[in-house]
Design brief:
The protein has 242 residues and is mainly α. 54% of the residues lie in helices and 6% in strands. The radius of gyration is 19 Å and the shape is globular.
């Protein structure tokens, strides 16, 4: 049984959510949708204008209409807010926002070269570039898999800044400043890392030669997203879409 306080809280939050812009409402719905197929179906219905649909429990679910690009940008804005902090406040939410951003972009017609995806940083962040350089220098295998997995989970190069450690780190951030000798770089952040991979890939595909490097980067990108879904999404609290 739910306490009266919980019922009041859910009612108030539901009321406030309905007053948010449609892309914010959709991001909230997607964050509560663990299954990838259900998220894609939800995105398709949102892009088609939304509407009311019957859920698993027989209740009607209202899905607002929204632009896929607006949804991706909303998730990206939230990611930037979280990833520029010394400590990521909620790793599960971070992972879900990354998946939402990437899946919304994936559904946009032009794919990775879609001009609507050309936002965010113009200079690649140093920490993410350094980590990506390490990965592409190694042959795909268990070592690389473990490196990606640990960073996606906030370990090794992806570990949060603790205590006064922030004083000993150089601010790479969006501007991508080079590291200063003796100072630690900022941690590799999943959202920024995948954005870096996408930027590098789009540069490769825009040229005439893709080759093995592009295949390697596609593999890195796919495995990173797989890790997010595996470790941070669960099969309960599903928002079914029929």
């Amino acid at each position: 049984r739910k306490s009266l306080l919980e019922v009041i809280k859910e009612t108030v939050l539901s009321h406030l959510t309905k007053k948010c812009p449609p892309q914010v409402q959709v991001v909230g719905l997607l964050c509560r949708t663990p299954k990838k197929d259900s998220r894609y179906e939800l995105l398709r219905r949102v892009a088609a204008g939304g509407g009311s649909f019957k859920g698993e429990n027989g209740l009607k679910i209202h899905i607002p209409g929204a632009n896929l690009n607006d949804i991706a940008n909303q998730a990206d804005d939230l990611l930037e807010t979280m990833e520029t902090r010394p400590v990521v406040p909620d790793r599960k939410l971070l992972a879900r926002l990354v998946l939402i951003r990437e899946e919304a972009r994936d559904m946009m017609g032009g794919g990775i070269l879609d001009e609507r995806n050309d936002r965010g940083f113009s200079t690649l962040p140093q920490s993410e570039v350094n980590f990506l350089t390490k990965l592409v220098a190694l042959k795909p295998g268990k070592v690389v898999l473990d490196m990606i997995r640990n960073v996606m989970l906030g370990k090794d190069e992806g570990a949060d800044i603790s205590g006064n450690d922030d004083d000993d780190r150089v601010s790479t951030g969006i501007a991508g400043r080079a590291s200063v000798t003796g100072r630690k770089p900022h941690p590799v952040r999943p959202g920024m890392f995948l954005e870096t991979v996408s930027k590098v890939l789009s540069g490769i595909y825009a040229g005439s030669d893709s080759g093995i490097t592009a295949q390697h980067l596609e593999w890195v990108n796919s495995f990173s997203l797989y890790q997010f879904h595996k470790h941070f999404y669960f099969q309960n609290h599903v928002l079914p879409v029929h």
